[in-house]
């Protein structure tokens, strides 16, 4: 069964520059995404409870977005953090894109909700 791309949006009270630091650096990602994060040559090493997963940075643009691909995952799947602005409210919006089996999207979305709440706590939101 193939996975499908899904998108989640989270309004955040924070400047794009500060938010981008939390999405694209080992120190920032280590605050909310994983227990331990290291980076060498565009490969990020994410650690949770003693297990590690590696992800390469496929693409990034300062203060706009960063796209990762798990090294042990399919070539055409990725997860991405992008920073958008609402044209109506001028509010910063964190956009998360990820892949999951259709029946797992709800559970994966809840996991992202939990992770992003931790990020917002670190940002003082």
From TrEMBL:
Outline the extent of the START-like domain.
Answer: 3-124
Query: Matching Pfam families, A to Z?
Result: START_2 (PF19569)
Q: Which SUPFAM superfamilies match?
A: Bet v1-like
Q: Which InterPro entries match?
A: START-like_dom_sf, START_2
Q: Give TM segment ranges.
A: none
- Entry superkingdom: Bacteria
What name appears for this protein in its UniProt entry? START-like domain-containing protein
The record lists the organism as Terrimonas rubra
């Amino acid at each position: 069964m193939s996975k499908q791309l899904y998108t989640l949006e989270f309004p955040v009270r924070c400047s794009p520059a500060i938010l981008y630091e939390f999405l694209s650096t080992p120190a920032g990602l280590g605050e909310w995404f994983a227990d331990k994060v290291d980076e060498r040559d565009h490969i990020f090493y994410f650690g949770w409870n003693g297990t590690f997963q590696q992800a390469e940075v496929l693409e990034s643009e300062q203060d706009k977005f960063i796209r990762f691909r798990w090294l042990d995952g399919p070539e055409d799947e990725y997860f991405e953090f992008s920073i958008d602005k609402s044209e109506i409210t001028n509010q910063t919006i964190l956009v998360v894109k990820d892949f999951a089996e259709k029946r797992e999207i709800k559970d994966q979305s809840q996991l992202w909700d939990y992770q992003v709440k931790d990020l917002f706590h670190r940002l003082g939101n």
